[in-house]
Write a structure and sequence with these properties.
Largest sheet: 7 strands, mixed
CATH architecture: 3-Layer(aba) Sandwich
Number of strands: 7
Number of domains: 1
Helix content: 40-55%
Strand order of the largest sheet: 3-2-1-4-5-7-6
Strand content: 15-25%
Oligomer: single chain
Radius of gyration: 17 Å
């Protein structure tokens, strides 16, 4: 597919999608904070992945991202009515804004819990084998550690989403030896060698990696 065709397809998807006011507001808030947010195609994918959380073995989803308001709305759209979303980010201001976003969108406070902490400090406290979806948007240098922390959390059939993990394909450039690129390569290698994992890499954002537990 050419870049022109890709852009045309993305424009068609966006123009034919009914975007709720709450999502528009969340995107505006994220822009004010200078946060990166998923586009509509990526958001719809997150909703679909979250829809599997209705299984009895799953308690819901985890969003590790400063843009929890936008990411969370897409995930909550797909979550089962009894499933919860756990948002992890050390910036209290981001989480406060997300809390307001979810309330204004009509979600009960019991549907979302907030952990204002460094992700790697709290993810080990979450119940292993209990989550249908874990979404992680972290600095590239943290990708290997986040992968190691998130993989045990997934229920069978659950998926870990590593946003922007392929660095616009610069990790394929052997001349790149900076810390971010080396860490992204390491995470990519870990993912592709995980036992019991189905790995899908997609040209969404800067390159998205989906790791599903069989």
């Amino acid at each position: 597919m050419t870049d022109t065709a890709y852009d045309a397809l993305r424009s068609y998807i966006e123009s034919t999608t009914d975007v709720p006011e709450a999502l528009d507001n969340a995107r505006r808030d994220a822009a004010e904070f200078g946060l990166t947010v998923p586009d509509e195609m990526t958001g719809q994918l997150l909703s679909t992945l979250a829809a599997g959380s209705g299984s009895e073995s799953s308690t819901g989803a985890v969003a590790v991202t400063p843009a929890a308001g936008v990411v969370g709305l897409y995930i909550l759209r797909g979550l089962g009515e009894k499933a919860t979303l756990t948002c992890i980010d050390p910036e209290v201001e981001h989480q406060t804004q997300a809390r307001t976003t979810f309330r204004d969108a009509g979600y009960a406070p019991s549907r979302v819990r907030f952990l204002p902490s460094r992700p790697l400090d709290v993810m080990s406290r979450l119940a292993a084998g209990s989550y249908q979806l874990v979404y992680a948007e972290v600095p590239p240098v943290e990708l290997p550690a986040i992968l190691d922390a998130a993989w045990p959390l997934l229920t069978p059939g659950g998926t870990l989403v590593l946003a922007d993990s392929l660095l616009d394909a610069t990790l394929a450039d052997d001349s790149r030896r900076d810390r971010a690129t080396l860490a992204a390569r390491e995470a990519d290698d870990i993912a592709r060698n995980l036992e019991g994992a189905l790995v899908t890499r997609l040209p969404l954002g800067a390159g998205m990696t989906l790791i599903t537990r069989r």
